[in-house]
Amino acid sequence: QSALTQPPSVSGSPGQSVTISCTGTSSDVGSYNRVSWYQQPPGTAPKLMIYEVSNRPSGVPDRFSGSKSGNTASLTISGLQAEDEADYYCSSYTSSSTPVVFGGGTKLTVL
Amino acid sequence: QVQLQESGPGLVKPSQTLSLTCTVSGGSISSGGYYWSWIRQHPGKGLEWIGYIYYSGSTYYNPSLKSRVTISVDTSKNQFSLKLSSVTAADTAVYYCARESEMIVFTWGQGTLVTVSS
Questions:
Q1: How far apart are CA A80 and CA A11, in angstroms?
Q2: Which of A51, A52, B69, B74 lies 20 to 30 Å from A99, alpha-carbon distance?
Q3: Which residue of B has its CA nearest to A103?
Q4: Do the beta carbons of residue A105 and residue A7 sit within 8 Å?
Q5: pLDDT of A50-90, one tens digit each?
Q6: What is the pLDDT of residues B1-15, one digit of tens each?
């Protein structure tokens, strides 16, 4: 069981927007702005898409955005494209014994 | 641009020690500012943070693996390594080396599958 809770799957049609949630606790998401999102297409390594809740690394399209409210962080992908189909993982700094926790991952299907 | 590449045996026998090395190119481990990590992903599952090392040699391990994990660094070769002892089938996974800062993984290696089987 992962420390952060994500929906197993989400889907959307090209051009639409989808939002993936990541729910933690007051020991992680709720207390720190060190939430990151990673994209992992099948058979490849994860890639950083969002860090510190809402910052995009250079090269990541602005179609990807992040936010946080209370113990829940969210990744929104607007203007869905076929190439966005992948697994998405959130992570957060945590005050527990392990400094970082991951979500269980969400499979995004572009219909 | 910093790149990381894992290397090591893809098959390890139960009870033996898993050993992997990560070679860093395009930047120096000794430059500071980043931690050098190992993360694994069980087949079809999520990500599990194993631990990290700073170029100075200071380490931090996942408590659930701490008794079996050793991460070391060789700055002269620009490499860092993972040793996981007393492996079982539950340690079968894709192992990634990574570069992180403030618990943000900025750069990942391509990953290497390690299977534990006799």
A1: 10
A2: B74
A3: B46
A4: no
A5: 999 999 999 999 999 999 999 999 999 999 999 999 999 99
A6: 999 999 999 999 999
Within 10 angstroms of residue A92's Cβ, the number of other Cβ atoms is 29
Residues of chain B contacting A100 with CB distance shorter than 8 Å: 49, 103
State residue A98's pLDDT score.
84
Q: Do B102 and A93 touch (CB under 8 A)?
A: yes
Strand runs labelled E in chain A? 9-12, 18-23, 35-40, 47-50, 64-69, 72-77, 86-93, 100-102, 106-110
- Could you report the per-residue pLDDT of B63-95, keeping only the tens digit for each? 999 999 999 999 999 999 999 999 999 999 999
Residues with Cβ < 8 Å from B28, sequence gap 6 or more? B75, B78
Nearest to A2 among B46, B96, B103 (CB): B46
**B62–A104 C-beta distance less than 8 A:** no
The answer to whether A109 and B58 are in contact (CB under 8 A) is: no
